[in-house]
Amino acid sequence: MKDRLPLIGITMGDPTGIGPEIAAKALSSPEIYRICRPMVVGDAKVMHQASKIARAGLKINPIKEVKQGKYEYGTLDVYDLENVDIERLAYKKVTRMGGKSSLDYIYEAIDLAMAKKIDATVTGPIHKEAIRLGGCPYPGHTEVYAHRTQTEDYAMMLVEGKFRVVHVTTHVALKHVSSLIRKDRVLKVIKLAHRAMKDLGIENPRIIVPGLNPHASDGGLFGDEEEKEIFPAVQTAKEEGINVEGPIPPDTAFVKLRSGQYDVALAMYHDQGHIPLKLLGFSWDRESGQWESISGVNVTLGLPVIRTSVDHGVAYGKAGEGRASPDSLIQAIRLAAQLAQSKKSPRT
User: How high is the pLDDT of residue 13?
Assistant: First the structure.
């Protein structure tokens, strides 16, 4: 029965950040082992230290092949790349070693998934400057995955419960966004969103598309991207049988998504989608002066492999202190397991 559960590769993230700690905390939950067979792709020595910091009490099982994993609650299987000098490991710092090792975990997880040795990947937090020092020419996980898998059409989806947002553009200066809002791109993202909702078991996904400009340009008063690019994409998608509406004013679009009138929304640029999701998923406790909850999941759509991720960074300020929240990672593992199970099931 255990062998039927999806096998999930979880990258450790930057060893100088909170990635190892939240992995130890997440995998100290028996619930995770009821839905999947989790394996950390990382460094066994670092995970041993992280288990102590997290007070997780886990037995570390270093492995070199997927089949060597025990996948039992209480034992943390680590696909051990042995690429961290534990004597030089310093939390809370941007380092070349941290960037290079975190890249190694990503590449290994992708390769394992492409070889069908694991069913899905979940990525821990990395630092953009650190991976640049480690030799990465790309700004983040999404672009690394796209390059490694030779994927051209992809998009970022953020998930917080039933609040789901798929981005038309992401890591680009705001002044360049308008030039990237084109009918073909918007249509591709609508189709990626539609397919993702189907994979989550929604038979007839309801998609809402916000405009780029205030009031969705208000009939051309504040720009023409809605009329020239976004509306034609929506109309073409409708003609192809997709249940989609828009463009409508962005502030209204996300209110309607939150109310449950739609299953997923597009976002024309990075912060248009990130801000409402983080307002829902992040909670600050005034009395303790700490984050009570940091939740939300990042999913890359369009890849030949499943990739979900935490929706937060390395949090250097907390690294090594044992107070980082594993909420987002737990949600990412749950969603990866759900998507992997969907891929194993026959399409309806």
Answer: 97
User: DSSP readout, 172-203?
Assistant: S-HHHHHHH--HHHHHHHHHHHHHHHHHTT-S
Taken as a whole, the chain contains a residue count of 348
The alpha helices in the chain, defined as continuous H runs, are 19-26, 30-35, 44-54, 96-114, 128-133, 141-148, 174-180, 183-199, 225, 231-239, 250-258, 270-281, 327-344
Question: What is the pLDDT, as a whole number, of residue 164?
Answer: 96
Token pair of 265 as six digits: 């929304």
- Which residue segments constitute the domains of the chain, with CATH numbers given? 2-151+303-344 (3.40.718.10), 155-276 (3.40.718.10)
Tell me the C-alpha distance between 264 and 157, whole Å. Answer: 9
What does the H/E/C string look like for 108-133?
HHHHHHHCCCCCEEEECCCCHHHHHH
The DSSP call for residue 212 is S
Q: What does the pLDDT read at residue 345?
A: 46
Residue 73 has a pLDDT of 96
Tell me which long-range contacts 131-135 makes (C-beta under 8 A, separation of at least 24).
131/99, 131/102, 131/103, 132/99, 133/94, 133/95, 133/96, 133/99, 133/100, 134/96, 134/97, 134/98, 134/99, 134/100, 134/101, 134/102, 134/103, 135/99, 135/100, 135/103
Q: For residue 176, which amino acid is it? A: H
With a cut of 50, list the residues of the chain below it in pLDDT. Answer: 345-348
In the prediction, which pLDDT does 342 show? 80
What is the predicted pLDDT for the residue at 283?
73
Query: Around Cβ 5, how many Cβ atoms within 10 Å?
Result: 18
